[in-house]
Amino acid sequence: MQDINQQDLQSLLRPQLGNDVIVESFTSKPLTQPGENYGSTMLALEVNIIKGDDKATRRKLDLVAKLVFPPGFLWKIFDPPNTAWKEILCYISVKEEYEKLQKEKCVPKEKFLDVFPRCYGARTTLSKEIGEKADENAVLLLENLKTLNYRLGDRKKGLDLTHTRLAVSQLARFHAMSIALKNLKPQVFKGTVLRACRPHNFDIDEEEMRANTPKLLNSVKIVPECEMYVDRVLQAINMGIQRQFGKSLLPPCELYATIVHSDFWVNNMMFMYDPNNENSPVGIKFVDFQIIIYSSCVRDLIFFLYTSTEEGVIRNHYDELIHLYHDNFTDCLKVTGCDTSAYTFQSLLDEIDAYAPVEAHHILFMLTPICADTNDVPQSLSEIDGFTSEFLQPNAAQKRKTKEFIIDFVKRGWI
Description:
Pfam families: EcKL. By secondary structure, the protein is an alpha+beta fold. It contains 13 helices and 10 strands.
């Protein structure tokens, strides 16, 4: 399904807004530009609704419809029948339990985690029941954050220190809230977070994955400062592929095992700004929860820092940002009444040392689409038919990020 009609909208909205809601009219247009989103088809909707017995109450809703993209190569990576359901579960169950726990624990407003956009409706199939397997009729209706003064960052440039601090602090609370739920309400945790984190089917075989290795290595070789580290990078790539196809290679340490976004980069977060200062972010929302997994929280942290920050942020502020993550992580556990004695700063550093090498392949792989010039990005998701055919040689942005990532990983002994 690549479109949505009036009847679809009405049936999707009624469970949230009431059975007396009538969709009077709506308009639809593509929400994202090439390179902004690879995992779904996104539409911006303006929906005019009528509500009430007298049909006198009119309201306009600015929404986003997230639809399953056409079958093709990306189905092998994203597994929409599974991942569309996983994301819907995040909005209808995980979000609800996060909010419920915080209210029960009287978490103050300034520390209340509020990173999920509002959901206006969802379905996995044409059935009224939300099943555990989606099809091409799956739809997720969300508030349109762009109309609420939220904006994306610059994926090629990366986020400055102010934006990075906000993202890191809220990422820490997002992870910690899952652990709090695990400790305080284990059965609820199993029925929501753990259920939503079930593995999806990554339908790429090892041979196909390894066929991309020469291109990844070339993206390192063409950076003069990194050429000497190609053998180390190859080892990291091999480790990453082993991790993908040998799940027992590095099982998560239960202490830091939590909900992991798995795709936490610039375009999967949006920032809200102070009305009096358009450069000062005052809020953040996370999006695209299709491929969440149960693993170590530091995987999101390391992946974000090395794919999504502007030049100099890692070099000059790495230690500060790791402390910021730890402070927010432990504070979130404390305000929900959890024991934090095991979560020492050193234990976090040890967890990072264990998992950063595993993320090296993930980072290197994703720098290509993250940094791609708009002209190099396929105009349609259906045009993407493989790993190696879509993007041209690394541009200046990719070379800069590759250099910073490789040199810092070598310095820290991660590759």
